[in-house]
Amino acid sequence: MASTEVQFNTDVLDIKDRSNIDLSQFSRKGFILPGSYTLAIHINASTLPERAIHFYPSEQDKNETLSCISPEIIPLIGLKEAALSRLKWWHNGECLDFQSLNGVTARTDLGKSTLFISIPQAYLEYSSPTWDPPARWEEGISGLLFDYNVNAQNVSQKVQGAKSGINVSGNGTTGVNFDAWRFRADWQARHDRRDTGAQSPTRWDWSRFYGYRALRKIGAKLTAGEDYLNSNLFDSFRYTGLNLMSDDNMLPPNLRGYAPEISGVAKNNAKVVISQQGRIIKEVQIPAGPYRIQDLDSAVSGNLDVRVEEQDGEVHQFQVNTATIPYLTRPGQFRYKTTVGKPSDFAHNVEGPLFAAGEFAWGISNGWSLYSGGIGGGDYHALSLGIGRDLLALGALSTDITTSAAKFAHQETQRGNAWRISYAKRFDQLGSQVTFAGYRFSDSGFRSMGEYVNTFKGDTTSGRNKEMYTLSLNQQFESLNLTTYLNYNHQTYWNQDANHRYDFSLSRSVDLAKFKNVNLSLTAYRNKFNQMSDSGMYISLSLPWGQSGTASYNGSYAKGNTLNNVSYYRRVSDTDSYQINGGIASTGTDLGGYYTHKSTYAQFNTSASYRAGQYQALGLSLQGGATLTPQGGALHSASLAGGTRMLVDTEDVAGVPFSGIGHSVKTNQFGKAIIADVSSYYRNSVRINVDKLDDNMEALKSVAQGTLTEGAIGYRRFSVISGEKSMAIVRLADGSPPPFGASVFNKKNQETGIINDGGSVYLSGIQPGESMTLRWNDEDQCRINLPQQIPANMSANLSLSCT
C-alpha cells in the first residue's frame, strides 16, 4: 500500500491557533502505524470473522506498512493446491507476500475495521453467493443449550360420552457443544387430566442420547449413540452404535438432497405431531384449513407417523414415506454410509444381534451412477445393487434390486427380493415438476432388517410390504395464474389391508373489480390408515382487505359435516398476526381464532374454538430456547431443536435490533441475543437493523458473515456506540484547547469525536459518569470525565475538562 506524504496547507484553515494542530493521522495516504489491529477480512464477496492483524514496515520501503496475513489464516481463504504451492513469505516467514500471486491486492479501511483482499477466482476453491469452501467453515464456540416446544389444550365437551380435560405435551433438545463435538439429548413429555378426575401420570422420556461432529476434510459426519438408520437403500430402524456417512448438507445448495414434507387439511384448529418409532420429531399447532410442513430435516428417513389432533376431539393418523429422489452422484464423486451397532428400543434397551451396514454411490460419468450396499447381523443379511441415469431433458431415473435372507426361530430361512424404480424431472417450459415418483415391489419372501429386529421384541404381526406407489407433482399454468399440487402414496401388504393417502390442490390468482390478487383454491384429500378412512374437501376464496389484512370465505366437507366459514387474517407487525373466523356447520355454529406473537425470547401461539352445543377449546403453545456460552447467553425463539445458532454481542449495549429468521430480535440487558435456526453450511449474514436503531445508538459495523457447521454456536461481536450526542467544549488543564484534529475515544476504544477549532467537538456515546480519552500524536494525552448527570436540554454545549 502506498505511503505518499501529504502536505497540508494550514493557512487555508479558519482557526485561531494554526500552530496547535495535529494532522498526523491524515498526512500520509493509506498509512497505518505499525502494530496490531482487530479487523474483519473481506475476501472478494465474503467476510471472515474479526481477528488480530499485525502491520509491519515494508522490507523495501520503511515508510510503508503492510498487513501481515499469517500462515494460520491461509486455510480460511480457500486457495487451490496449485496456488498454495506458489506462495512466498516475508518477515521471517510470518507474513504472506501478496506479490507471489499475480492479481492479488490488499487495502485496509480502519474506519470500517476491515482488511479488503481481492483474489482472482482462478486461485480459489469453488464458492457461491451462499456457500463457502470447507476451509472457511466454523465450529463455533462451546456452550450449553436447551430448546423446547410446549403445547397445552383445554377441551370442554358437551356431547354425552365425549371426554373433556386438559392435555399438556412438550418436546425438545438439551445439549452441550465442545470444540467440534455436539452432544445432544432429545426429550418429550406428556400430561393428561380428565374432568372425571382420572389423571394419567406425567411422563418425561429422554428419547435419544447421541453425539456427532463434522469431519470436514472428508466431507462426512460421525455420529455416536442412539440413532435411526439413515439409508437410501434399506428401511430405517432404531439402533445404538456408530455411523460415518458423507454428508450431503456439506455440498453446495444446488447439489443437496430432498427433504420430506407433510401436507393435509385441518377442519378445526389442531395440533400436528410428527414422530418416528415413538420419538417425536415435530409438534406444531396450526389454524383450520390446508397446511404444509416443509421444514423437516433432510436427514430424516423411513416412514413418519403423522397424528392430527383436532380441537373438537377428532384424531386423524397417517404415514408419510420419506423416499428420496433418484440416487444420482456427481461425476467422479464417491458417497458412502457406514453403520455398526445393535438394535435398541425407545427405553434404551439394546436388543438383537450386532449388525453392520454400508452403502456407496459412485458417479461413473456425466450420465451414469452406480450404487450398492449391504446390511447384516445374526441370521439376517441383505444386499442391494442399483444404477442411476441422468436422462438430461427427460429427467433422472434410478432402479435397484435388493435381495434378503432371514432365519427366524423354528422356521426355515426366508429369502426374497425387492425391486424399486424412482424418477424425477423438472419441466421448465411447462412450469411443472415431478419432485418424486416411485414404485417398489417386494415379494412374499423378502424381509427387511426392521422386521427381523421386531421378532426380538416379540412383534411378529407387523405389516410386510408388498407394493408402494409414491408421487409428488407440482404444475404451474402461468397464463392462467393457476398452480396445482398432488401428493399420493399407496402401500399394500402381504399380511394386512392396504393404506393409501392423497391430497390434491388447485389455486388461482385473479383480479376482481378493485380487488387485486384474489386467490381461489380447492383442496381435496383422502386417507385410509389401519382400516380407518377419512376424506374431505376444502374450498377457499381470499382477497386483500385493509392494510396487511386478508378476508376469506372457506367451505369444507368431511364425513358428512359441511362447514361454511368466513375469516379475517391480519399481520399486525413483524412479530404479531391473528386470525378470527365464524361459520355455520351442519352440527352447529362455529367460532374460532388464532394469534401468533414472535418475540426475541420465544414464539407464542394461542387458539380458541367453539361449536354451539358441542364443545369449546383453548390451545396454547410456547416455543423457544436458552443458550449459554463463556461469551454470554440469552433466551431466544427457535423452531429447530438443537440446531445451529448465532450469538451476537454488542458489548453491553441493550436493545440493539438484529434481523433474525422471519422476525427481528433485540439484545438483552447484557448486550447479547441469539439468532436461531441458522442454516448449516450456508454463508449466513447477520445484520443490525439500522432502520430500527435508536437515535442514541450508532453502529460502527452492521453486517457480519459466517458459515457454521451443523449444530454450532457461532459468535459475532458488533461495535455499537450508545449514549447521548451533544456539542461540547474541551479544555486542557491549563485552560487551552486541545490540538485541532485530536481524537476522542471511549473506554471501548471507539472513536466518539474529533476536536475542531477552539476545542469544540461533537461527541457521541455520552454516558453519565464515564470517562473518555483524548489522543493526539498517536498517544493518549489526558482523560475527560463526563458529568454524573447529563442535562435534559442537550442543545447547550457541554463544558468538559481533560486532565
Summary of the model, kept short:
The strands form 11 sheets. This protein has a 24-stranded antiparallel β-barrel. The chain has a 5-stranded mixed β-sheet with strand order 3-2-1-7-6, with no helix packed on it. A 4-stranded antiparallel β-sheet has the order 17-16-19-20, with no helix packed on it. The chain has 803 residues and is an all-beta fold. It is found in: Cell outer membrane.
Would you give an account of this structure?
The chain has 803 residues and is mostly beta strands. Among the domains are: 32-125, Ubiquitin-like (UB roll); 630-721, Outer membrane usher protein FimD, plug domain (Immunoglobulin-like, Sandwich), CATH 2.60.40.2610; 723-802, Sandwich (Immunoglobulin-like). Helices cover 2% and strands 56% of the residues. It has 3 helices and 55 strands. The strands form 11 sheets. It has a 24-stranded antiparallel β-barrel. The radius of gyration is 32 Å and the shape is globular. It starts with 34 loop residues before the first strand and ends with a strand. The mean pLDDT is 84.
